[in-house]
Amino acid sequence: CCFDKTGTITGEDLILRGLVQEGKLNKDVDQCTEFSQIVMASCHSICQMPDGDISGDPMEMAILKFSNFQINGNRLTRSGDVIVIEKRFQFASEKKRMSCMVNYNTKKYVVTKGAPETIKTLLKVIPDNYTNVADRYAKKGARVIAMAYAPTTVAVTNDLDQEKVEVDLIFAGF
Q1: H helical segments located in 69-155
Q2: Quick one: which of 48, 17, 30, 33 has its CA closest to 145?
Q3: Residue 69 — left, alpha, or beta (φ > 0 → left; ψ -120 to 50 → alpha)?
Q4: Of 27, 32, 39, 123, which has the fewest Cβ atoms less than 10 A away?
Q5: Alpha carbons 172 and 42: distance in angstroms, whole number
Q6: Where are the alpha helices (DSSP H) in 27-129?
Q7: d(CA 118, CA 57)
Q8: Which residues are catalytically annotated?
Q9: pLDDT class of 149 with cuts at 50, 70, 90
Q10: For 131-144, what is each residue's pLDDT tens digit?
Q11: Where in 29-160 does DSSP place strands (E)?
């Protein structure tokens, strides 16, 4: 995802410009691939409060809003699609990424987002223009977040190692 930075990165003034796929900026979620939408909707640390309000990082809130999914606890829904977040690996600054294990329409996936240079090391196939596209948007002043996913058969356990599930990821966009 690419954001305009119109103030401090922690402010509520982040503007989601869209999702870049194959070098093209998509400003409408319906133009984005199915799995880029799944990563946007489910790779976050947003929580729902007991009164129903949702709370979280402004960047993640903007991404979730763009995805058009509705959140109810660890469950996200949109037009018959259901995503259940089964496990979160919270963002760690030293790793420059976060991941979630999700169940999407009865199939399991790992979804990951983070710094483009970090996600690049986890991809099964790196698109030819990956670095050039990320750099182009960053030079325009955008905050660039890379996204990836992969199907998985790894069972979710409390002691699950993040690095064991973040393998052979498929690039989903910036």
Answers
A1: 116-120, 130-139
A2: 17
A3: beta
A4: 27
A5: 13
A6: 34-42, 58-67, 116-120
A7: 20
A8: 4
A9: very high
A10: 999 999 999 888 89
A11: 47-48, 54-55, 70-72, 75-78, 81-92, 97-104, 107-114, 142-144, 146-151
Which two three-digit tokens encode residue 64?
Answer: 């979730």
Whole-number Å distance between alpha carbons of 19 and 40: 9
Amino acid identity at 63:
I
pLDDT > 90? residue 2: no
Question: Which residues face 173 on adjacent strands?
Answer: 147
Spell out the residues 6+ positions from residue 140 whose beta carbon is closer than 8 angstroms to its own.
none
Structure tokens at 85: 């977040």
Chain-centre distance of CA 119, in angstroms? 11
Query: Which amino acid would we find at residue 151?
Result: P
